[in-house]
Amino acid sequence: MNEIYDQVKALCQGAKFAAPALAGATGEVRNNVLAAFAALLRQNAEKILTANEADMAAARESGLSAAMMDRLLLTPARLEDIACAMEALVMQEDPIGLGTVRTRPNGMEIKRVRVPLGVVGVIFESRPNVSADIAGLCIKSGNAAVLRGGKEAIRSNTAIVETARAALTGQGLPADCVSLIPFTDRAGAQALMDMRGLVDVLIPRGGKGLIQNVVENAKVPVIETGAGNCHLYIHRDADMDMAVSIAVNAKTSRPSVCNAIETILVHQDIAPAVLPRLQQALESRGVELRCCPRTLAIIKGAAAGESDWTTEYDDLIVAVKIVDFLEEAVAHINRYSTGHSETIVTRDTAAASYFTGAIDSACVYVNVSTRFTDGGCFGLGAEVGIATQKLHARGPLGLAALTTEKYIISGNGQIRT
Amino acid sequence: MNEIYDQVKALCQGAKFAAPALAGATGEVRNNVLAAFAALLRQNAEKILTANEADMAAARESGLSAAMMDRLLLTPARLEDIACAMEALVMQEDPIGLGTVRTRPNGMEIKRVRVPLGVVGVIFESRPNVSADIAGLCIKSGNAAVLRGGKEAIRSNTAIVETARAALTGQGLPADCVSLIPFTDRAGAQALMDMRGLVDVLIPRGGKGLIQNVVENAKVPVIETGAGNCHLYIHRDADMDMAVSIAVNAKTSRPSVCNAIETILVHQDIAPAVLPRLQQALESRGVELRCCPRTLAIIKGAAAGESDWTTEYDDLIVAVKIVDFLEEAVAHINRYSTGHSETIVTRDTAAASYFTGAIDSACVYVNVSTRFTDGGCFGLGAEVGIATQKLHARGPLGLAALTTEKYIISGNGQIRT
Questions:
Q1: Which of A363, A393, B81, B328 is deepest in the core (most CB within 10 A)?
Q2: Inter-chain touch A416–B377, beta carbons under 8 Å
Q3: CB contact under 8 A, B406 and A242
Q4: Domain assignments of chain B as residue spans, ordered by start
């Protein structure tokens, strides 16, 4: 434990020591690193894919589920996607640089500039593409990155991070601007969470358990991402075809992701008409319904308990509840939601406006599936995650979330009288 | 203790319940509340000044220091200043409202809007003007405020908060948009720090002890403000008159504030010439110098220990250290600073540029006194404090720091394929 802590500390000190070189590099140099990273990912493809094969073989032996194996798998096509993502970052606007300049009555000039945060720590799970994504986002935004991935992907992550480090040194920057913690057990993650003063922000990327652990145990400031207890509310006047289509899409198109819905609220007036159609559409796709007592008076299903309103199933299960009016739907959502994404289906612009104003979540939809909460779908470019907190950043976290600001004040001897 | 906790919780629930009415109010209504608040502060002047006299009498009996008594004192002129500050807020730009609107290829429209944080908690010390300032900033930014002031000012704060509440109800808004916790002991503050889920952000305003206590013990997200171990670095080529003038201003014009300097670093080449002048100017104003061994070879003074580099004296004491070169000054500052404000005196634009780029603090000055780190001096309007952290907000915290954002996405049945 102490040895792991000391080694993680040494690695973070290396990152902090290397960070100013990347922070001080021009946007052109940072883009050159990204282009070199893309080129080297292609050049090192065989080495990276071989490392991934070893991860896959170990995972197969340890009996990892098929879904997890698929998340772990790198193919030539997936690796090419990763390289293209690095090239796409080159095209994104530089988040670093001069903001406003003002001259004050006493002659001093105040510049407000966007600067990197410094050292960004990320704790993530099995997908090896995350190590390249985060390395790329940090290079673009001038931050040193310290990565701690899951044990299943350790060989793949090592090969990818080595490639990023080669891209850095090839452009005259320290390799330690990107590093990987080699300890994949709990002690490795906890050591990173303890690095207050060396790591400026920690971002957990993964499932609920991971995020909760980081939020509760980190001494470093954390950006909370990803927990998604999302809701669909079907208002009294909803287009029923649209409501069913959105329910099916938001629940079944990818049930394991954070922007899938977990509870459907239905206005009492439309419940008798829409619930049988919802049930038919969802059950035919393998979805289990957990219903409030009033819902069970209309359709058959399992009975929902209090815990169903708080659960992020991440699975083919959905809770269903009838509400008396719009305000009750809003109150339910504001009480139980994790603040990620909610949608209303309605033809009534006043109801939509009330809903979008009163719901206290990062993304509030009207007549659209919650599945669009994603940096790419929003046209914001690559993302670090979906922030469900209110401070610093909210919703899809783009490059700007990896920056802070600084005031630079110049003069000729001004003193305050 | 439990009773205090329960009462603070009830008060925060009242704030959370009231908050949406203020968040949903137009900028015009919020400005009307501020104008009414200013008018009522003048109308209730006698009542407020009488309450303050009672606070002053109790403080006198308990033997409060003259400096603290002065911070506590309200006069007709000071009260008029507070009323004018509320009117100045009316003139500031509304921080709430529509940001960008984009239409995506699938036809859905994405609005990015600035919204209030919700409920803002503030823990502060003896100055009664803080209760009006915070109430005003929160009203302007659409946030409900829960205030917990020091025990010395409880009568003054109560009278001011009652005035704010009357201004709210006069404009048809719930009084609970501004409330004051009546418990001025530690349990009252701790209860507020525990209100995760009810209070969206907590801002400590006061001395080091208060801030450290809040940062370490709050379960609610905190914006860290105010700790100021600030530095002056005198480069080899500095204009010595300017260096001495800035040192005197930054140390002695108001030694108790966070933007006063605590350590002076001097380049070895200029040390023999500038140190005697610095000593004369500072000692003649009652400043005690705590010097590194090399400094003591040039001037007389007390010897500095390691703790002097970390101490925020907030008093007429300054640490002095000779450095070999610019990079050593930067390394010293980045190691010991609290990240508030630092200044360099130099004629060399390359040295200035290196300094402003490499120093990792909120405000970095060139040839200007650090005493200007202040929302008013920066032309940013009223401030909540000076943030020394990197996430969410950094430097003088204006109205924008009391907001977050929300995405509102509208369409006609879009689903993700």
A1: A363
A2: yes
A3: no
A4: 2-223+397-410, 230-372
